[in-house]
Amino acid sequence: MRKSGNRFQKVDIRRDIAVKDARSPRELAQAISWTRRDFLRAATGASAGAALFGFAPLQAMTLPPGRKVVVVTFGGGARDEETFMPEGQENIPHLLNQLIPQSTFFTQVVNRGILGHYVATASLATGVYETFNNFAAVPPDYPTVFEYYRKELKRPATDTWVVAPSNGFNRIGESGHRSYGPGAGAGVILPKRLLAAALSSEGESQYEHLLRDNYETPLYTPKLGGSEIELRQMAEILKLSVDDFTAHARSLASPDELSVYIARQLMRQLAPSLLWITLHDIDIAHSGTYSLYIDAIQRSDRLCAEIWSAIQNEPEYARKTTMFILPDFGRDSDTDAGGNGFQHHRTGDPLSRTTWMMVTGPGIRENVVVDRAVESTDLVPTLGSMLGFSPELSKGKPLSEVL
């Protein structure tokens, strides 16, 4: 991949120079953005978003009625060395060859909050950098996008769902804010919790690979629980028997595959207009096993493509759904003495805070790269502008490039 004369070699050289010359966190974040941009231009022929500012805004285009949104987040980002660099491109063939050419891609999404998966995902879902203990079983302090959506647009509880990977995410669907709160947000499905309950009578040993929870620290390992009521609710909502659920689980390789399976059942049976899917396999990096980390990147790449394919094949979603894909944050670099390289995200340096986002769907400009700095908190205001509600307490700004 780095042969003499290869266009990717120039990207590598430019990256090395840019990162070496960067003196401040802001300059380093910008250098990361530029190298992602240059790599994507070389790999996909993407054009620069800045050249599009003179074009008509997307609101002027004909958008489909009944617009839907699917948000896919990664619990645990993947570094550019294993993704958006020449040596990592083989790990993301679906993103590079299928999804990004259809997307507007933001190369510099900065997370200025706490780098813990639950609290960072809550920040993505509220548009505010939440400050609660990442390992506390508490709801977000600020209203979630699901509450804004339902309250202002008067949508039923069945129209917005979260499929989350860990028991630690069970409070993500609605906030503790006094103007919203219990009953006002999204339904949350924890596939591992359901599976644990379904297996209570037959043992869990053959499903151990699907029931892993919280790779980050053994000090917080919430007990996987469930109840017959939840299983009956699942059977009723998803039109899926417990036997069928466990039988299908046997064929799956990871918790994320289980989550995507449940998400597809939701799409078929309820067709929610706002669906949030959090993938978590990449966080196996905390175990320190590089090969498992790479496997998880490759699987996440494939699952994103499968979600997009499901969107195109479901009549309720096809030609009227916008999909957002973004990590919650990044990972440490190999050169930072305070970190552990790919294994953790402890330093809070620009490499662990500077990530990316792709947006694809009807009316979204294709194969466009935007390298201006945006923030994680910009997601909720963008969803509000797209779906027609006002997230009044969010701190971010709508992203004009996709509106």
**What CATH first level would be assigned?**
Alpha Beta
- What does the largest sheet look like? 10 strands, mixed
Number of strands: 10
Write down the secondary-structure element order. HHEEHEHHEEHHHHEHEHEEEH
CATH architect. name: 3-Layer(aba) Sandwich
Task: Explain how this protein is built.
The chain has 403 residues and is an alpha/beta fold. It has a single domain (68-402), classed as Alkaline Phosphatase, subunit A, CATH 3.40.720. The protein is built from twelve helices and ten strands. The protein has helices spanning 7-21, 25-44, 93-99, 117-126, 145-153, 191-198, 228-238, 242-249, 255-269, 290-313, 350-353, 379-387; strands at 47-48, 68-74, 103-110, 160-163, 187-189, 274-279, 321-327, 354-360, 368-370, 374-375. Strands 1, 2, 3, 4, 5, 6, 7, 8, 9 and 10 form a ten-stranded mixed β-sheet that branches. Helix 1 runs antiparallel to helix 2 (25-44), helix 3 (93-99) runs parallel beside helix 10 and helix 9 (255-269) packs parallel to helix 10 (290-313). The chain is globular, with a radius of gyration of 20 Å.
Characteristic key phrases:
single chain, 403 residues, alpha/beta, Alkaline Phosphatase, subunit A, 10-stranded mixed β-sheet, 35% helix, 12% strand, globular, disordered N terminus
